[in-house]
Specification:
The chain has 248 residues and is mostly beta strands. Helix content is 2%, strand content 56%.
């Protein structure tokens, strides 16, 4: 486990936009947004962070996707106090909110109806210690000092997602210089270790390129699927806490 630093990488108002493609086909737009406002949750100041994914063009013919994943992240401790998912994929809907009491080591999951109005299920869970959610875990990674990493080093992030406790192992693969529509970056490469599943190919099917600067933003993600691969590339970065460092 590598030490967490005081957050100097992100702040309110950050907005990152990505193009998601399958081969040469543009599938979707993805957006990572930190609200301009600070929200108080459980008496703690928090960043409200949203991840949006929405199909575009011909991809919508096969089934529209309009997803929103979010977290309320403690501005000091970089721990989530609440997370939520609003999933619209074709006819499928899921509206879920999870309240995390990190001190008491408890999680309460609330499931809502299709219109996200009526509460239909509540369930409580015991946590082994402090945990991240699927969104907050990445922002936590951005607070770690990555300069001391050697190839093969791992970061383990304990998490709670979809009613389960998990340990996400991110393996450091080294550095690479890559070009994007936003500029050319020196990057750190990480691959999350994944259990066998029917969607991805191999034990390390996903690669994430993170900029080697003070912002540590994701600039590219590649996922090897059972058939073909999915690519996510940054096309716009606004409201960054630090100056963007490109190698152009």
């Amino acid at each position: 486990m590598h030490s967490q630093q005081k957050n100097q990488s992100f702040n309110s108002g950050e907005e990152l936009l990505f193009n998601v493609s399958y081969g040469w086909i543009g599938l979707a737009d993805a957006k990572l947004v930190i609200s301009d406002s600070i929200f108080t949750i459980n008496d703690h100041p928090t960043y409200k962070i949203d991840v949006f994914g929405k199909t575009k063009g011909p991809a919508s013919w096969f089934g529209k996707v309009n997803d929103n994943w979010g977290t309320y992240l403690d501005t000091a401790k970089i721990l989530p106090h609440q997370s939520y998912r609003h999933i619209q994929e074709g006819k499928y809907r899921k509206n879920e909110r999870v309240h995390l009491d990190q001190k008491a080591k408890k999680a309460k999951m609330e499931l809502y109806d299709r219109e996200n109005k009526e509460l239909v299920e509540t369930k409580s869970f015991d946590l082994p210690g402090t945990v991240q959610d699927i969104v907050s875990g990445f922002y936590y990674l951005r607070t770690i000092d990555l300069k001391k990493f050697k190839s093969g080093d791992a970061v383990t992030i304990p998490g709670f997602f979809d009613k389960e406790i998990y340990n996400l192992n991110l393996i450091y693969q080294g550095k690479e210089r890559i070009s994007t529509p936003v500029g050319t970056f020196d990057t750190y490469i990480f691959t999350p270790q994944m259990p066998p599943n029917k969607l991805f190919r191999g034990e390390f099917p996903v690669k994430v390129w993170i900029s080697d600067d003070k912002n540590k933003i994701p600039v590219k993600i590649k996922a090897n699927l059972v058939v073909g691969s999915l690519d996510m590339e940054i096309v716009s970065a606004k409201g960054l806490r630090n100056n963007l460092v490109t190698k152009d």
